[in-house]
């Protein structure tokens, strides 16, 4: 089953509110956030041998990559919003 089938309701809701591009990016952002939470919880149990207060190095790399992906998605959403507003005002 594809993400379009699994997340149909969320996609329809966000695409209606934000348009197709921003709506899909919003759902992707939600998926990344949920995954970050799950990985963060897992990190509590998989502590680094060097520094027990931090997650294992592989989890740190995954968390960092996911946070970077979120930042990129957020920047694209903001650019799309600014373009839409510029088109309305200009």
How would you describe this protein?
- The chain is mainly α.
- The chain is built from four helices and no strands.
- The chain has helices spanning about 5, 10-20, 20-45, 55-90.
- The chain is elongated.
- The termini are far apart.
- The mean pLDDT is about 90.
**Which stretches are low in confidence, meaning pLDDT under 50 for 5 or more residues running?**
none
Mean pLDDT: 91
Q: Give me the Rg, rounded.
A: 17 Å
From the spread of the alpha carbons, the general shape counts as elongated
Structural class: mainly alpha
Number of helices: 4
Strand content: under 5%
Sketch the topology as an H/E string, one letter per element: HHHH
Can you lay out the helices and strands and say which pair or pack?
Layout: H1 3-6, H2 8-18, H3 20-45, H4 57-89
List keywords for this structure.
single chain; about 0% strand
Can you describe this structure in just a few lines?
The chain is 82% helix and 0% strand. The protein has helices at 3-6, 8-18, 20-45, 57-89.
């Amino acid at each position: 089953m594809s993400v379009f089938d699994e997340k149909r309701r969320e996609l329809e809701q966000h695409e209606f509110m934000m348009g197709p591009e921003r709506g899909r990016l919003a759902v992707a952002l939600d998926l990344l956030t949920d995954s970050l939470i799950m990985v963060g919880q897992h990190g509590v149990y998989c502590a680094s041998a060097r520094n027990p207060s931090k997650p294992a190095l592989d989890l740190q790399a995954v968390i960092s990559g996911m946070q970077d992906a979120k930042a990129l998605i957020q920047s694209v959403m903001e650019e799309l919003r600014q373009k839409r507003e510029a088109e309305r005002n200009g």
